[in-house]
Amino acid sequence: MIIAFVGLSLLLAMTPGPDTFLVLRFSLRGARSGVAAAAGSALGSMLWASAVAVGLASLLEQSATAYRIVKIAGGLYLIYLGLRVLLRRRREEEGFDLQHRSAPSQTPVAAFGAGLLSCALNPKVGLFFLAIVPQFVPPHAPLFSTVLTLGVIDTVVAFAWLVVITSLAARAVVWLRRPRVTALLNRVSAAILTTFGVVTVASAK
After folding, report:
1. How far apart are CA 181 and CA 60, in angstroms?
2. Helix 31-53 vs helix 123-131: crossing angle, to nearest 10
3. DSSP label at 17?
4. How far is CA 78 from CA 17, 21, 133, 162, 180, in A?
5. Residues 119, 82: contact at Cβ < 8 Å?
6. What Cα–Cα distance (Å) separates residue 19 from each residue in 11, 16, 122, 128, 162?
7. What pTM was computed for the model?
8. H or E segment to which residue 48 belongs
9. pLDDT per residue over 91-128, tens digit each?
10. Which pLDDT tens digit goes with each residue over 126-170?
């Protein structure tokens, strides 16, 4: 049962999503920022697992309004992240140092916060724990502790995968930081994040 859950968690983690592209974007500024973004996303996942464990996330299933509000908030945040990438790139082209690491938006703390908000404002994570995780809870097992345990497993698996992505991006950072490559990746990641956001908001019915 646990092995099957680990396999499912890994499969879902390997599926590209907002968190993946967010971690990749921060990884361009260094492995520390990439790992911080991954850690923030992992904490956001644990928050959802905890909410499901205490029964709070059931509101998303029972209340269409609550689900819509959370989904729109998450979509707007992704749009904000995408637009911020484009605006920052424009400022860099006007003379800002591409390697300027002291900017608040690029610190590991900011990366952690972005990862946390991106995951915490994604109701699909909560619905995953609400709909999928209980199916792996053995009969008569304590629901609270078992859901939390499965939440920890899923979080660790997702975090490990994001760290792998960060490591690969950090190793290729010399190539990735070439002006043309960086500009292309920034535009692609901005477009993907913004698209995720627009689709999320549009699908909030």
Report:
1. 41
2. 50
3. -
4. 11, 11, 26, 18, 24
5. no
6. 14, 8, 10, 15, 8
7. 0.69
8. helix 31-53
9. 555 444 434 444 445 688 999 999 999 888 887 787 77
10. 777 776 777 777 777 787 788 888 889 999 999 999 999 888 877
Helix (H, G, I), strand (E, B) or coil at 184: helix
What the block records as the tokens of 66 is 């609550």
CA distance 38 to 25: 11
Tokens at 59, concatenated: 């509101």
Q: What token pair was written down for 26?
A: 């921060």
Name the amino acid, one letter, at 171: R
If you search the block for the tokens 């049962």, which residue do you land on? 1
| Distance, CA of 172 to CA of 164 (rounded, Å) | 13
* 170 contact partners, CB below 8 Å, separation of at least 6: 27, 30, 31, 34
Residue 96's pLDDT is: 41
What the block records as the tokens of 50 is 């905890």
- The residue behind tokens 């549009």 is 202
Q: State the Cα–Cα distance between residues 134 and 126, nearest whole angstrom.
A: 12
Residue with the two structure tokens 């911080």: 36
CA 109 to centroid of chain Cα atoms: 15
The amino acid that residue 93 corresponds to is: E
Residue 98 exposed, middle or buried by CB count within 10 Å (0-12, 13-18, 19+)? middle
